[in-house]
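Let's practice the habit of predicting before peeking. Look at the sequence and jot down your guess about where helices and strands might fall. Then scroll down.
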Amino acid sequence: MSPPDEAGTRDGDEAPLPVADRGEDEGPVGVDTPRDDVEPPPDTAPPGPVAETPPGPVAETPPVDRAPEPGTSEPPPPPEAGPVVYPDAHGWTFYGPEQGAPREAYGVTEDEGGNLWVAGGEEGLFLLRPGADTFERFTMDDGLRPYGYLKNGKAPVGPKYLKVISVAGGPAGTVFVGYQGHPDCENNFYVKGAKDPNIYKSGDADKVTLTATGIHVVHYDISSGPGVIGEEAGGREKICSILRIAWDKKHGNLWFGANHAFAWGDPDYQGNPTCNGQRECSGVLEHTHPYITAKDASGHQFRLTDAYYGIAVRPDGDVWFGGCNRSTRFRFMTVKVPRDFELARKQSENRSAIKNRIDVWPDKVDEVGIPGPGDRVDDNVSGMALMPDGSVWVSSFAWGVARMDSKGVVQQYALGTGGDRFVSALARDSSDNSVWAGHRWGGGLTRLKGDTTLRYSEALGPLAYHPVWDIQSVGSGTERRLLVAFGTDESGRPGAIGIYRAE
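Done guessing? Here is the structure:
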């Protein structure tokens, strides 16, 4: 499909919020490095499995409809380092390095053909075909391309950096793959005398399709070339680490949640190495961020935006995005001219769109007052899950979960205390509309089902001590499968892929 219309300039915008230095953003919020202004997670993990209790969820009290409070208790330490023993739990199947899976699973998904794909970090992209017992592995040697093109269509010179961190299933045999960029990829393009295309062109995303002999790869270079953006005539290279991906088959859209901002992609894009970031041939539209203006301790003001881990596609084609500081409904399909990226951007970024910059866990000083370091309660959104009634659950790396209504008004908080509040992944269960939360600092999985909270730490055994980086629900009815990506634990023991088929 051809890309939607975009003005390619920001002429006619309302006056932007005051920003003293538009080129300065706070560094990315890495999930491995808690922010200085957020209470750090505990160094210990929650209680281990109880031998006398049979595997299965443990019912607890219902979610509490009140604002979250800091946790006060710390769980006991995890077991000694050693090989992971995968539990023999009802309804679960686990895959680890013994089956060819990666040591660290950052993401897991399934395409429409039933192929299971795993984001394996620096080890690459992994595939488990239907009926197979062993994973296949793909790297740059097989065609993965975690870097963009120069204007002549060639690759940047120098060593390349591969780290697969997100996946989203597409049509049968196709997966959309997100990469982490070089550590300085967001700012390198703007450093005079030190610009290095091997850095600022690193990361972004691929469309990977199985062939009879291997894979076919199309790269999404998520940038804007010279002359595309009026106020950045020399080009724009900000997005590089793709944290989450969502394929909207119904409306023909592909969404990238990234460092700094989010962007659109054409799922049918066939690639064009010499496009040089021009809209008519790049297969992408970038970017939008519901930024606010903040200030540091000296009073210096800067634009605050980062880490869009939350993506939830609405039935009308609009999309909820959640980032480190604010969340927004991106009105891509319901603006006056549907698919007009520029009009939709204004409804998230303009001064008059303040109600569409949602502070899920409110700062002490709102954006009008320009919050300083002590005024901020950064949301640190880690995921989003849309519900059939139009409401959306939002998870946080630091504050638990919250439920917003269809207008973006927070109605409920839950899992806001102790180790529960470090939620790193979220998904709606298509079988019963319950919500699964995966925990970063121990605790395994928690399920919010009606008025009941179910905990799966005992069922997961030692895996409850591993971070849960991704949860996806695929299929429906009796064919529903919950896919869970477990990372390595604090002792360096390998993670796993978990597939849950029970109720």
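How did you do? The longest strand covers residues 204-210.
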